[in-house]
Amino acid sequence: MKTLVCLLIATGVGTVLQYAGIPHGLLLGSILASALIASNLRFSPTLPFGLGYVQIVLGIATGLMFTSWDNHTVAAMLPSLGFMLLCLMVQSSVAGFWLFRVSGWNLKDSLLSVYPGALAAVFDLIESERASSKVIVVHLVRLLSITLLVSFCIPGHVDVALAQSSPLDVSTALTLLSLIALCLLLGRVLLSVGVPAPFMLTAIVLTAACIKLGYLQTFHLPQWSVDSASVLIGVLIGSKFKDISFAELVRHGRAGLLAVGLMLLIAAAFAGVAGRLLGSDPLSLWLAYMPGAIETIAIVAFSGGLNVVFILTHHLVRMVVLHFAPALIVQARRWRAE
After folding, report:
1. How many CB atoms lie under 10 A from the CB of residue 216?
2. 196 DSSP 8-state letter
3. How many angstroms separate the CA atoms of 220 and 127, rounded?
4. Calpha distance 142→226 (Å, rounded)
5. Number of compact structural domains in the chain
6. How far apart are CA 306 and CA 139, in angstroms?
7. pLDDT digits (tens, 9 = 90+) for 259-299
8. Which of 13, 159, 285, 325 has the largest count of CB atoms under 10 Å?
9. How far is the C-alpha of 136 from the C-alpha of 104, rounded, in Å?
10. In terms of Cα–Cα distance, which of 6, 8, 10 is closest to 45?
11. What is the CATH number of the domain that holds 310?
């Protein structure tokens, strides 16, 4: 009952912020409401299947955007992908070093705090590694910073066509159910080897493959499914503030803001250099090199008339690399223990 009340309050606050015109108001409002509830009442909502639902829905929503993705497009952006991977290494190293040496955080918290993965992957890592609650503060700062920054730099009415869909016929319904079942099956396999947020990764790749094979061409996720995913992940993140005092929030938030600022500045520098060398749009490159927040960036890029395929391909590669890296670390630990 408490969990249901928390969800209703989070949805209400998020809806108010959404109608007030705040970017990602539903997500940010649910984080704010659930964080206040968790910190004041010392209560964490029980959502056993919440994270899996979030991963599947956001993964399919992202995969559906890859309608014009082809081999020629990928080959043309290989040099830029190389710049992005180098940028990620520099971002994580510099920001992690700042938190470790200057802020005095331990090595595990420093590395997890600058992990530039999707929110679902970050949340999964925090759960599996039993990281300090200060880690989620840094990633909340990252989400807020990127959301507000890209919304300010690229003004426009955020209105991605998610709700307008053709009627769901039997063929489309069966394809969608098969896709979800396959995402769950392959996701479980990836989960067994330590890949964080595996259902989101499989949903993106398999949905993009369906689009290329001619399936789900006219299908769009209904708006309520994406909105409910935003509320769920907001509540899951906000519940992490149960054991965080206001003083800790201010202290960790300040350190996180400096670390995120370093990562965004490094992304801008790499985008400027790559733009000159490759003759590409520096703004698109900057969005492509940003450390995470693929959902925010996808919506803003779409509404701003930018090259969504170019930007999202970079983030897809980033997610594949970063989601498999923890699995390799886990396997290396097992081999070393044996």
Report:
1. 18
2. S
3. 31
4. 21
5. 1
6. 26
7. 999 999 999 999 999 999 988 889 889 989 988 767 667 66
8. 285
9. 17
10. 6
11. 1.20.1530
Q: Give how far the C-alpha of residue 140 lies from the chain's centroid of Cα atoms, to the nearest Å.
A: 11
**b/e for 8-25, b at 16 or more Cβ within 10 A?**
ebbbebbbebbeeebbbb
Q: Say which residues have a Cβ less than 8 Å from residue 266's Cβ, sequence separation at least 6.
A: 87, 90, 91, 94
3-state secondary structure 59-125: HHHHHCCCCCCCHHHHHHCHHHHHHHHHHHHHHHHHHHHHHHHHCCCCHHHHHHHCCCCCHHHHHHH
For residue range 51-93, what is the model confidence (pLDDT) as tens digits?
A: 788 888 888 887 887 776 666 767 778 899 999 999 999 999 9
Q: What does the block give as tokens for 322?
A: 């970063």
Q: Which two tokens stand for residue 184?
A: 């769950």
Which residue range(s) make up the domain with 124?
2-337
Distance CA 12, CA 22 (A): 14
